[in-house]
Backbone:
């Protein structure tokens, strides 16, 4: 065997080893992401239980200043962001991502309902946005709308944003959409009960909130 | 299958090539080449300097040759003025009376014709070298070169080129690039895989030049053509890694592209039109079945990866820009805590990073082994910032010129 042939064979072995190591590293990182998803799953379970408990407690307690200012789930936005990253990294068809999105959507619906119930009981008018997007390639402005809502959420801490994948195959979500009469046009918003479709600018979005509904700091 | 899948073959080839470099670098011939000590003997040597309009650098070039650590009676310097129109003739005449120097003036006929005239006047020399008039040699370079002519099969020896006093970003980028080329040349020469004997300080056995005939126009790449001729004739081309020669490199992008288009079109035209038989040649499998096919793949792959990357950057950039515009600009710069969770890590990206790290490693090796002066780190930054953008420019232009049959000019 010539030196050249010997070197070629060793190089081939080395190349396979390097590519194998990199494939292992990519797989490891994806496993770490999936492990992180399990953490999110646990967080959602705890938040769901917490929400149920709060719901029971609030039913038995007359409305007062303390209950009206209760923060239901502070980590809702953070969970949503991490789910969004997981979705972009692992793909929209990843089964674990889809399951988590379903759980997250359920949590959001429950949070929305209890927020509404407290508002009715206490006569408050919290600012809420129900945002419906689509990943089916029929929403050119959904990325912009999602970014604008992130900005609004960070600017107005009292604002509660609930994001839903319109096409998620989840019974509760479908019923929620049917009751709200949200049309199949994206991005779709339900801002304090009023429907609007399409995204133009963050300023236009802000105008749709009732005057004084957006506060730049949380009440203490 | 996404377009990015097409990058996988190129990434595989690149990793394979880097692995081959490493294995060959550690093999016996390369180790032996690095271990060579300075030649105790001093055969008669002639250094020919073909000159065309190099009034600003020529004196420095000649001074560096006269300062070579080599017996004066064994070293002759032949200056050939190829019809210069500036003050070059006057500079040459200033040195004409030096006992080691022969000054020749001729009508402009191209670099190869000046080299041939010099060879005609180098009658007593056993080894004949060439030095471009914008290059300067280190004092011990010639002894290193002579040491590399240790086997009769070695018909030519190349030096380690470095960029002379880099000033501009383009020159700094080239400084890093040249250090990589030093390693490549050293490793490939150990298996006789070179296809170019560059103008700055390459040497030939006089007997071989006499056998193979004079230099040719060769699509303005006479150094490549002669190297290919040597390879076709079954000779070996060696390398003396510590023979340092510093060359003035193009300071601006247009001048750099012009130079590289000349080199690349010269390579393509020589290998595709005149020396196609070298591709796949079994007599020298390293060159024919590895180096030359890879050189051609690199040109095609470089263009493809560049086009692919630019398309990705353009689309992703425009998309991000349109999203960022949805909220006040200040929100885009809000500090967000770093998390490894957010770092995108796909196989092509990690392979790309691995390739980059290995390439930078080879540059460090090239600089240390050749002992060229200067700091690599700041020049590496220029390389990382610009090379991936500018190199495809001359590759695309060269392929286009060759395909269209466009004429290439020297300057």
Residues:
């Amino acid at each position: 065997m010539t030196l050249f042939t010997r070197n070629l064979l060793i190089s081939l072995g080395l190349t396979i080893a390097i590519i194998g190591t990199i494939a292992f590293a990519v797989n490891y990182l994806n496993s770490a992401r999936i492990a992180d998803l399990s953490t999110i799953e646990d967080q959602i379970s705890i938040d769901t239980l917490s929400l149920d408990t709060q719901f029971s407690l609030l039913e038995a307690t007359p409305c007062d200043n303390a209950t009206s200012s209760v923060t239901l789930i502070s980590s809702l936005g953070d969970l949503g962001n991490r789910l969004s990253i997981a979705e972009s990294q692992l793909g929209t068809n990843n089964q674990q991502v889809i399951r988590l999105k379903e759980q997250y959507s359920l949590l959001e619906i429950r949070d929305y309902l209890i927020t509404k119930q407290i508002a009715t009981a206490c006569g408050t008018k919290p600012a809420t946005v129900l945002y419906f997007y689509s990943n089916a390639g029929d929403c050119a402005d959904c990325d912009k709308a999602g970014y604008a809502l992130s900005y609004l959420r960070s600017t107005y801490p009292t604002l509660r944003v609930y994001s839903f994948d319109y096409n998620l195959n989840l019974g509760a979500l479908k019923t929620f959409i049917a009751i709200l009469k949200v049309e199949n046009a994206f991005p779709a918003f339900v801002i304090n009960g009023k429907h609007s479709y399409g995204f133009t600018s963050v300023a236009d979005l802000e105008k749709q909130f009732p005057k004084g509904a957006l506060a730049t700091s949380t009440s203490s | 299958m996404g377009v990015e899948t097409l990058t996988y073959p190129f990434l595989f080839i690149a990793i394979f090539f880097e692995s081959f470099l490493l294995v060959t670098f550690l093999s016996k011939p390369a180790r032996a080449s690095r271990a060579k000590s300075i030649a105790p003997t001093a055969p008669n040597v002639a250094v020919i300097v073909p000159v065309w309009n190099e009034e600003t650098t020529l004196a420095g070039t000649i001074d560096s040759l006269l300062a070579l650590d080599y017996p004066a009676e064994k070293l002759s310097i032949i200056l050939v003025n190829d019809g210069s129109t500036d003050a070059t003739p006057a500079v040459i005449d200033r040195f004409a009376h030096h006992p080691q120097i022969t000054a020749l003036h001729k009508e402009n006929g191209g670099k190869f014709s000046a080299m041939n005239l010099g060879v005609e006047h180098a009658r007593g020399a056993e080894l004949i070298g060439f030095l471009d008039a914008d290059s300067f040699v280190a004092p011990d370079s010639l002894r290193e070169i002579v040491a590399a002519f240790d086997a009769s099969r070695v018909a030519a020896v190349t030096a380690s080129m470095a960029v002379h006093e880099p000033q501009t970003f383009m020159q700094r980028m080239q400084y890093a690039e040249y250090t990589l080329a030093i390693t490549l040349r050293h490793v490939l020469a150990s298996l006789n895989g070179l296809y170019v004997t560059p103008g700055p300080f390459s040497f030939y056995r006089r007997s071989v030049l006499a056998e193979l005939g004079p230099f040719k126009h060769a699509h303005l790449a006479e150094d490549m053509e002669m190297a290919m001729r040597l390879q076709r004739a079954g000779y070996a081309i060696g390398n003396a890694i510590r023979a340092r020669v510093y060359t003035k490199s193009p300071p601006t992008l247009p001048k750099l592209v012009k130079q590289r288009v000349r080199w690349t079109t010269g390579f393509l035209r020589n290998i595709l039109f005149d020396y196609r038989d070298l591709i796949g040649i079994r007599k020298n499998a390293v060159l024919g079945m590895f180096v030359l096919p890879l050189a051609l793949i690199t040109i095609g792959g470089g263009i493809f990866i560049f086009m692919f990357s630019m398309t990705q950057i353009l689309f992703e950039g425009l998309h991000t820009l349109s999203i960022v515009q949805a909220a006040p600009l200040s929100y885009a710069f809000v500090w967000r805590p770093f998390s490894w969770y957010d770092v995108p890590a796909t196989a092509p990206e990690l392979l790309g990073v691995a390739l980059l790290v290995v390439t930078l490693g080879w540059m460090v090796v090239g600089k240390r082994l050749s002992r060229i002066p200067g700091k690599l780190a700041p020049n590496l930054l220029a390389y990382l910032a610009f090379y991936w953008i500018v190199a495809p420019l001359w590759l695309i232009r060269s392929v286009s010129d060759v395909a269209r049959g466009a004429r290439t000019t020297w300057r």
